[in-house]
Fold this sequence. Notes:
It is globular, with a radius of gyration of 17 Å. It starts with 44 loop residues before the first helix and ends in a 10-residue tail after the last helix. It has five helices and two strands; from the N terminus they run H-H-H-H-E-E-H. Helix content is 32%, strand content 4%. It has a two-stranded antiparallel sheet. The longest helix is centred in the middle third of the chain and has 16 residues, at 45-60. By secondary structure, the chain is mostly helical. The protein has two domains: 23-91, no CATH class; 98-149, no CATH class.
Amino acid sequence: MTTIDTHALPDDFDIRGPIGDIDWTQFANCKGKTHLFFAPKAERPQARARREAKARSLCDKCVVKDTCREFARVNHEYGLWGGESEEERHLAGYTIAAPVGLRSAKYRNLRDKGIPADVAIATSDGSVAMVDQPISIIAGEPAFTDEPA
């Protein structure tokens, strides 16, 4: 049987502090367990499902879950934060710094030109198409891919 360590907040702790303030992390159940929250290179779907299930079980019992999730949304983080993956954040209307996978190199070039990744598509010939909808809808493919970079 697996046990999960949980941390209690001190009575005087104000969890509603500024989102940029990361003092809340000292109370997170995931402290020292980053391997559960960030995918290793070339992770298989079944391994990802198992890893994320373990991570979510820690998040479910965490006293800073909501603050953690909000931190990831505001700071465009990758990985599982507050029980929410980057795909789930994307579906909730939040963006990440750049798409994951093969398309990342194309978007790095766009970023260097000052074009936000959520309003541009790098086409196969290297040109840029501007859009006013999320990339996943325009391109007809998921915003996140397991294809190698």
